[in-house]
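Table S2 (text version). Query chain:
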Amino acid sequence: MRQILFATIALCCLSSTALAADANPSSGLSAAEAAEGFVPLFDGQSLAGWVGIGDDTSSYYVKDGMLICKDTGKVHIFSEKEYANFILRLQIKLDPGGNNGLGIRTKISKQPHIEGMELQILEDDYYADGDPIKLKDYQHHGSIYGVVPAKTGHLKPAGQWNDQEVICDGRHLKVILNGAVIVDADLDKVQPIDGHEHPGLKYEKGRIGLHAHGNYGAEVFFRNMRIKELK
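Corresponding structure-token output:
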């Protein structure tokens, strides 16, 4: 009887270990990342943990483990929690002409690029010929909108997944796209270049945002969003 009990306990321990190894597959969080301190920012199943302006989250929906901004979406959503220093990892896929923004240390605002920082999310190739608009340097994918232009040429074509990492540590902000560093900024040394004041550059903490700029019939897709807070 005692041997059966020990065997049962051992089996339960092995099962728990196997589950831990899987971490949270629907959120894209691996066991290795979980061990490093990463947690899901999007659970892969719902909008739990996210809020919209005026409680409106209707510009986004969840499907097959993806958080998707509708092609007509105009209302931003934000993490319920505020973050100061962190590493954020996510995957992004854009329809042709896709336009969105990744908010860093933002307030819940219709202008999160001002009340915080916005990292541009844009399917650059659609605009390469200057039609329908000619992009300014700070409007390319990964740029700190209105402040720091990103290095171009590292975004994958429309319909393909991009791996993006954002490291926000004190006054240092780094953006890595598909293995290439496209922004490496000292926030104390940068100045707005779009003619607007950007008080959000000084914020020490805030929410993560997904900024809906639906247009041209283009959806924007997110998955495997995970974050690690830094001390």
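Notes on Table S2: The first strand starts at residue 39 and ends at 40. Residues 1-22 have pLDDT under 50 and may be disordered.
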